[in-house]
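ZP: hey, is the NDP complex queued? I don't see it on the tracker
AM: it wasn't, my bad. submitting now with these inputs:
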Amino acid sequence: MFDLLKSELTRRTILHKAGFGLIALSTFGAVGTIFKPTRTLAQAGPAPAKEPLPPEKKLGWAVVGLGKFATQQIIPSFGECKRSKLVALVSGDRTKAERYAQQYGVNPKNIYNYQNYDSIRDNPEVDVIYVILPNGLHAEYSIRGAQAGKHIMCEKPMANTVEECQAMINAAKKSDRKLMIAYRCQYEPYNLTAIQIAQSGKLGKLKAIASDHGRNLDLKDPADRWRANKKLAGGGSLYDIGIYSLQAARYITGEEPQEISAMMYSTPGDPRFREVEENVNFVLRFPSGVLSNCTSSYGYSDTKRIQVFGSDATLELDPATDYYQHRLTIKRKNGNEEQNIEEKNQFALEIDHLSESIMQNKQPKTPGEEGLQDVRLMQLIYEAARTGKTIKV
Ligand code: NDP
């Protein structure tokens, strides 16, 4: 696994666009990959550090918030990390934290709560803090973490408002710490291959993108209860999962949208949607002329799909943004070609990406500015839906 990870990381090329980083694979080393892109997409960015890292070196990570995603996906993934190890936990529930500490070999002296969180500054074992709290708490705990002198990984969406995102970026800069947003799909092999194929011209000229992300919000699930609360969630389906459709349109094109139109609808009387929206459909126009049709819903059944329509072929990624078991198909007049790509632990890849960025003092591929851009665009999507007007970005 380590060799695969290392070779993947060193084969990445940084694309500079609009001040943000986007990485594509120059070659894709997956075993059994039918499509093997051979050329680099754009000019190389800063050269990766030449000095190999000592193989035993791992940065210490603290996870803040021991909820569903943290305990089921992120914490177990540290076992597959090569540059990162779990050393501390922050939780409002001491008993739960002790249970996970024992299970994952975390020293109980490294368990914190939300009150004594700032004292993590005195713990030299902790290099990085990973904030996996409800969205409305991301800004506070990222800022306090940066002020405690730690690097920050923050879950998506970055925060509720543009102002909060900016304050997080400022706090990280002031403390000279890295800030990365956990956009796992930008580290996931199927999505990276889709970007490469779409931008390589293999589909012909790109004309349109459709991306749909939906599921049923379930108030019986504690992890969904705060998602129905505007203060804790920031928004509804758009903030939680429509953001994957927005990200897809942006990373597949490698462009920023110039115009946005949108419509929004929530089922009247449904208690799930008293404070947050159910459905948002939005259209983005990109400078190249690509039109992207995106949907986001808390009311339709599980869907995580990206389609890219080119003049010669269509790319379909379905499921596109799941945790495992993606499928990527190129559809042409004369038949379909399924891409057989090796699955990798995208969580371990993104966690190690931040550790490597810190060790090599490089800007991570999905920095705070990337998260801020999505929050800014989502606010414009709401505005377009509210006013019924097409918004110029
Ligand atoms: P959960 O509700 O399962 O976990 C949130 C945890 O935050 C709780 O378990 C609790 O942990 C802590 N917490 C602190 N204050 C509060 C509060 N006021 N209300 C509720 N919880 C609180 O949510 P998820 O794990 O599903 O989501 C957490 C974050 O991760 C969100 O930002 C979400 O968008 C993101 N996420 C990202 C995914 C991805 O694929 N990148 C997938 C799923 C979620 P404790 O008891 O330890 O204090």
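AM: back. Confidence is low (pLDDT under 50) at residues 1-50.
ZP: great, adding it to the tracker
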